[in-house]
Structure formats: structure tokens, C-alpha cells
Amino acid sequence: MEILKKIYKFIASMKFAIILLIVVAAACVVGSLVPQGELFDRGAYSERTAGLILGLGLDDVFHSWWFIALVSLLCLSVLLCNLTRVRSLIRQTKQAADLSHALSDTPTVTYAGVSDPKPVFRRLRFYRPTETAVDGKEVVFSYKNRVGFWGAWICHIGIILIVLGYALGQMTLFSATVYGTPGQVKPIEGTPCEVTIDDFRIDLTESGFVKQYAAELTVRNTETGAAQSGTASVNHPAVLAGYKFYQTASGDAVRVTIAENGVPFESTDLCVGEELTVSFLPGLSLYLYAYEPDHEGSPAYHILFFYQDQHIDVGKAYFAPGATIDLGAYTITLSDPLEYTLLRVKKDSFAWLVLIGAILTALGLFIALYLVPETVWAVKSEDGSWTLNGKSKKLAPLFREQFDRAVSGRKGKEAAK
């Protein structure tokens, strides 16, 4: 039992919680440096480093067993630390309103020979003092800001919710990438939704510099038919159908039109980095490598041709916008350049928990810093004068200064002279 008590005290100690918080923060830093949830590229690291990353699951930190264990232990430690302080906080809260405890307590500041204590109470903003008698002596007593004892406690609860919400959010985070040109309808993998790129524009300043990238989107749930529209721009994601759409990047694209004997029968948009399989000739595909200056410096599409996954040389790699590739009875026409938008789709199911935690943390800090528990009491002496006492649990020098001004009747600027 004694060992269990020691283990409990250690886990519930603030020292242990701080150590865990540092370790969790370090793990989050590692998670931001190593690409997460993607196909791991061993070639980007040395053999030893790659082995360490894979062995510890650093390529997917937020889903690793040890990170989940650390976060759980941290939340448990801070929670136990808070629970062990509840009795003490309740006792302190009750004692702040207890006159007998105030009379037996050591005051922060004492003034004797005060003729009338009530003006001092008002200047210290103790507006409703209690008048009573103790051992045959008149006593005036008041207190305020008892809630201030709970500021740090509320702040710690907020921190628990922030850590827990962030960890759960990362563990269950949904993330997908969608890209396309205006008019295209793209499915969002892993969801019942599809997104229509209604429009994509690049806003410029008067001097010709890029001001903003914006994509007009419509998201439709294919199961229910419900649809929402909105605009996703840089630093201003669109929230549609419960998902956040981030305007991440853009690039060049081309509309490819295929015709047979001059009659178009297929048209599709091809983005840089995409491959198009030619439907009329199985095994033949076009890969749009880039939209860049050709050998003569003119903007052109750099296209690579593949047949059965083998690169073939057709004698020409650059094609000007509007060019037609002649393949006998079939022709492939390349339109003028298009711009495609790259969207990052995310959903964090526990963002609300982080928000509540942030609100509680801010509230706890406000209570702890600005609602300082204070007690003031005055005892009437036999000569008719009063001995004035004040007790502040925090910021004793500032409380003495306020007390001096209240007793002297001077304002802050006057007292400073």
C-alpha cells in the first residue's frame, strides 16, 4: 500500500505533469518535421535514421501507441493533481468567509488608530461589510474574490481539454486532397461527398502581383443530395458539409479534346503531373510534364508519351497551345492554358473540445490574475479607535500599497508623489 501511495503521489505531482508535457511537446515537434501518414521515403534518410523513424512510428506519431499512452498519462496526471487539491480549495474558500479564521490568521497589513473603518472598506471596494461582536468587541468584516482560489484549477482543466482534444483530433483527423479545373466534379475519397469546382480565380493587385487565390466550390452529399456552396481562399478555408476546404496550391492544366475523322468524341482536362490514357489505342498514354518555355523560348506543353508503361520517342516533346497531335484517323487537340486548384480537405472531430479547453484556460488565467482573494476586518479598541487588518493570498506588496492609499484617503497619483 505504501508503494502504491508513493506511485499515486508521483503521478499526481506537478513535477511529473511538467515532464510529460515537455515530452509530448517534443513528440509534436518531431511529428511536424517528419511527414505524417504518407508513404515513407527511406531514401531521404540514412539507414539508421530511417530504421529509428519506422521503429518508433515517427512517420505517424499521433497514431502511435506510445504517443497515445503519453497523452493519456499526461491527462491523468494533471487530473489527479487537480483532484488532490479540491479539498484544500474548498477549505480555503470557506475560510475566506469565516471571521473566526480571519481573526486567528496573520494579516498581510495592519493599521491601528483608524477613526472610521467604513470609508476604507469602500475605497478597497468592500461594499457590504458585516458588523458583529466578538468577545464583547465590535468587529467589521468583509471578503471578496473567493473564486480566485479556483483560477489555477480551472486553468489546468482547460489544459487537459486542450491536450486531449488535440491528441484525439490528430488520431481521428480526416485529410484528403482534391484538385481540378473549373467545371470538374471530383469525389472526396473516404467520404460520401463530391466537390464541384465552380470557378477558380487569381486576383491581382494594380501592379500585377498575386493578391489572392480563390476557388468557388459546391459540395454535395451523394447519399442525401444535400449541397452547400462557398469560397475557399488562402488563409480563409470554406466550411462545407462538415469539412474544411483549404486553398493550398494551383498549377497549369490543358483541355485535351480527342476527335475521330474531325468529330470530337472525348474531352478532359489534364493537369501538370497527370497521365491520360488514350481510349482508342489501349496502352498509349500522354503525361503532361510541364507548361514551360520550349527550345525557342515560347510557352509550350511539355508532353511525354508512353506505350505500355514504356517511354517512346515520337520526335517532338513540346506543343504550343492550340496545337493538334495527328494520330491518323484520330487527332488530339490541346487548348489554351488553364489553371487548376489544389484543395486540402480536412475534418477535425474534436476541435470543439480544444475550443472549450482554450476558453477555460483563458477564464482560469483571468480569475487567477485579476480576482485575488482578499479579506479585511476592523476591531474596535476600548479607546474608540479601530485596528484595521487586511489579508491577501497573493500580490502582498500591491495589496499593501492599495491599503496605504485607502487608509490615507489619497488616490493613486497622489500617493505616488
Question: In terms of topology, how is this protein built?
Answer:
Layout lengths: L1 H10 L2 H20 L13 H10 L8 H32 L2 H6 L4 E6 L3 H6 L6 E5 L2 E8 L6 H21 L2 E7 L4 E3 L5 E12 L5 E12 L5 E7 L4 E3 L2 E18 L2 E9 L3 E3 L6 E10 L5 E9 L2 E3 L5 E2 L4 E4 L2 E5 L3 E10 L3 H20 L3 E7 L5 E7 L3 H13 L3 H5 L1
Antiparallel strand pairs: 1-21, 2-3, 3-20, 4-19, 5-6, 6-7, 7-8, 9-10, 10-11, 10-18, 10-19, 12-13, 13-14, 14-15, 14-16, 17-18, 20-21
Helix pairs in contact: 2-4, 4-7, 7-8
Major sheet summary line: 7 strands, antiparallel
- Taking pLDDT < 50 over at least 5 consecutive residues as the criterion, the unreliable ranges are 411-417
Measured between the Cα atoms of the first and last residue, the distance is 62 Å
Query: What's the number of helices?
Result: 10
How many distinct beta strands? 21
Structural category: alpha+beta
Oligomer designation? single chain
Bin the strand percentage.
Answer: 35-45%
Number of folding domains?
3
Rg to the nearest angstrom?
35 Å
Helix content: 25-40%
Question: Quick one: overall form?
Answer: elongated
Mean pLDDT: 87
